């Protein structure tokens, strides 16, 4: 795939994913805001309903005894009227006490009895209407309508007159006697349940910005979650009292309304992110593998072309009459052909070994071996190459216990591969030191060079199949990236460990740790 097209594809996929996440976030945020608005609307409706129910309950309770006074046939004295209109509430049944009596139609006389500043016009309207109906009510009292039916029979104008007069009378009663905490809490819960709202709340009634006795224990004014409604509104729309309700569980309730959809949305978004990340990772790996395979083919071609070219040259030389007549030169060229053939065979064997290791088909027979002997044997395989480049291999065999369970051939190949890498990645003459030491029940082999070293990234990938860290020209370091993969697999098969410590420009140290046997 073209690099520019590959980058464009990744960019478009990333932008699409970011767009999906942004849209999901916007949708969730928008839903939360809409639900908050809906909650605020419902909360206000709850407070309006509670306020109306409290005001209607007070009107209903005071209307009955007030009407009894107007319907009475005996003249009450000042004390009786005052006892009635003081609205002394019985805690046991919340009923109003009253006595029968007759009231003078003159509203001024009525007001003088109770010393209330009552709207005399509205009171006179009530008294006049009651006087018109008094004869009929007294003649057939048994068939009179109930107080509740009387309330329902009132016209809007008549009801307003009663509400104003009763409201002005009730205003002289302390708020904690007009509204009980239990009643207020019950009404709030009832209204919330009717709207399927499960939320914690605290409440309080304020009078002229001061808290009254009617309040819950943990109430506090928190304006984002507190709603207010006036209580006992008069005919001019004014009110001395404000009911405040703080919905302490508002945030949790709003979030709970979208919890299911939000969780599903997040899960699906995460699935998309994981799928995208996995696809992107696979795409990157495939691209990397493609590049690695290309490098592998190029390097293997180079590795095989060199011995083939050498063999062809040697064969051409042998055909030459001048050479064919010289047995010594013929022998020399034949030896060269044999060595190059071995070299090609070794390259092919390396690839086959890795394939067999991948399939777990490589049968490795292990026997008791002295690791120092294996090290010395491996050194002889590369000593000529090192000497040819004016370098050295110093061996420091410090381990006292060296017996391991190993395959002589494969373990020799392991050490040769590491030494070969040390030679390849040394820009100048190779300088290699080999150390051994005992650590508990193991023997540790360290092969240290003073080559070009490697990056931290390369150290993590050095044992991966086909991995080769580029050093400029693709072919300046020969190989196919399989040697250290083979090394790692053989060490693992021997129940050992291998790792590398390296720094750019300061060389590398390969460390092999193998278990000892007695």
Automatic annotation (TrEMBL):
Gene3D superfamilies: 1.10.287.130, Histidine kinase-like ATPase, C-terminal domain (3.30.565.10). Keywords: Kinase, Membrane, Phosphoprotein, Transferase, Transmembrane, Transmembrane helix. The chain crosses the membrane at residues 260-280. This is histidine kinase. It catalyses: ATP + protein L-histidine = ADP + protein N-phospho-L-histidine. The lineage of its organism: Bacteria, Pseudomonadati, Bacteroidota, Flavobacteriia, Flavobacteriales. InterPro entries: BphY/WalK/GraS-like, HATPase_C_sf, HATPase_dom, His_kinase_dom, HisK_dim/P_dom, HisK_dim/P_sf, Sig_transdc_His_kin-like_C. Its EC number is 2.7.13.3. GO terms for biological process: osmosensory signaling via phosphorelay pathway. PANTHER family: HISTIDINE KINASE, TWO-COMPONENT HISTIDINE KINASE. Residues 299-518 form the Histidine kinase domain. It comes from the Bacteria. It is an enzyme of class 2 (transferase). GO terms for molecular function: phosphorelay response regulator activity; phosphorelay sensor kinase activity; protein kinase activator activity. The keyword Transmembrane helix applies.
